[in-house]
Amino acid sequence: MDPDETTTQDYVTQVTVNYTGSYENVTSIPDNHSNSSYSEQLLLDFNAEIFHRRLPNTILISVMMILGVIGNFVVLYVYFTRLNRKNVERYFVPFLAVVDFAACVIGPTFSLLENVYAVIFPSNLLCKTMWYTTSLSSGLSISVLSIIAINRYLKLCRPHGRQLTVYHKRMFMAAMFTIVTLILIPMVFFVELQYIDLVYKNEHVLGITCAPHNPRQTLGETIYFGCMFGVISIIIIITAGLYTAVGKVVFERLRKTRKGSVPSSIQPSPRFVRNNKVGNDRKDSVASVLSATNNVLQESKSQLDIRKKSSVNGVLNEDSSILDTRKESAMNGQALQLPRSTNGAYRQYRMNFYIMFLTIFVCNTISFVPSMIYLFLHEHDLYFFFRHDDAVLNIHLTMQRLYVTNHVLNPFIYGYFDITFRKHVIDTFRRVPPSPTTVRQVSSGT
């Protein structure tokens, strides 16, 4: 494993670090340094000690990997076997789950490789591949969340404006995947194995690590990483702004709901309000709900046909889909299931999805920002993770890899906010097949 002398002199930096955490400035490897200092056994012993020091982080990453893989697999299994895939509220859930599943496999695997082969990383190709795929999975996750933010913002804050149709969503997803895939390609050329000169048992040891650091960093590399940080920061800020607007509307509607306002899913049309002068008095709320619902069900046949044609073209939104299903049920003589109270079951259903995606974004930001900061520190300091004592080292490693937490938490966030999804997960583990009644309720969005 001994690199040749010329290559070593090209890569060795001006800092030598020993395993206890102290470091001293040197200009080169001492001339009286014997070849035995670079022996494979000494390097292996040093690597084993580093692995032992990083063991708490290794255990934590392993547990997160197991939870993330199982959780996202359950999400995909339940979605494709038990849930109604035409439910537009869950349109982005499988895409996000696939990205999270990949991230929970790739990210922790790379972290474990860095812990196991801290100073003897085995392959330059493996180094480049892991950095690229890890960055790709995280980049796709952020991009999906930004598209979700745009979609939710238009639906909630601009309900009467232009909306994202299924076609638009597919095009956005395809464009996002292509752009992220291409923009990360230069990273393959900038990331490579790096030699680090360390001191172990009073002997100089030349280790090999995988890091986004190049002592001969070019201007192009500096510009690239700077632009990457800038683009990611802009995406996070814009997405945060959209979700802030969504959050204000969501919590305002929840506040009104607690006061007993009529659910938005069965609000009367403006013409009905003018003709019938529906009162806002809470004493008449039940009568208003029933009257508004009857008015909706009596919409003209031409309007119903327009909505059905729109659904064929993939431009049907959530409200029209739910109303059409309810109208068809009424026409077939089936009982219409009204909310049990004026709080509105369907409104609460939709609010849960808004809050769910808002929570996912908050968790993503909180977990991703520290990882970006540590990437910046590591990119400018190759020895950053070799100069701390055990406790501080594991804290730094955990913060650097905190981005994995977001991919692990998403399935549990689904289960908390999506009651129907949670019920199907429980039924799956109980091996209880979904009843026809449950399927009809899911398809109607209740």
TrEMBL record:
Keywords: G-protein coupled receptor, Membrane, Receptor, Transducer, Transmembrane, Transmembrane helix. GO terms for molecular function: G protein-coupled receptor activity. Its main location: membrane. Residues 71-414 form the G-protein coupled receptors family 1 profile domain. Pfam families: 7tm_1. The keyword Transmembrane helix applies. The lineage of its organism: Eukaryota, Metazoa, Spiralia, Lophotrochozoa, Mollusca. It is a multi-pass membrane protein. PROSITE patterns: G_PROTEIN_RECEP_F1_1 (PS00237), G_PROTEIN_RECEP_F1_2 (PS50262). Belongs to the G-protein coupled receptor 1 family. It is found in: Membrane. InterPro entries: GPCR_Rhodpsn, GPCR_Rhodpsn_7TM. Gene3D superfamilies: Rhodopsin 7-helix transmembrane proteins. It comes from Magallana gigas. It comes from the Eukaryota. One of its GO terms (cellular component) is membrane. This is Cephalotocin receptor 1.
